[in-house]
Amino acid sequence: MTLAVEALALTAAGPSLAASSLLISFTNLHPPEASSSEAVGTSGSQQVGYAFWTNDNPHAALWLGSAGSAVNLNPAGAKSSWAGGASGSQQVGSAMMGTNFSHAACWSGTAASFLDLHPPGARGSEASGTTGSQQVGLVVWPSNALHAALWFG
Fold it and tell me: What is the reported pLDDT for 5?
């Protein structure tokens, strides 16, 4: 459902509807089968975030502008996941892959396309942005030091 709302314009003389007819639209992206959801990033025609589909853990989600387009990106074997960045046909975020620490994640529109970007020897990692061919984020090393990271995946 998309709603259009007329916004009230503020002018030097005070609020005025005649001064501007700015339209703001709203689309409810919440998947009908989920208990809750949040979109946290957007790029072009895609939106990313997470939804609680089947259990108490969030699953990374991809939308293409409507609730009916929602895709559960949670990879096989992951306890939970989230997506926070998107560009082109690529989405990035993190997935809990059998440990108490997240693994930087990259998808191309499906759960089956999951690519684990987690570097060997790291405690945790997270991807937060992508150009579609480069991913950025952070890596947590055993000393708990956080390091900025760049991947090409």
Answer: 47
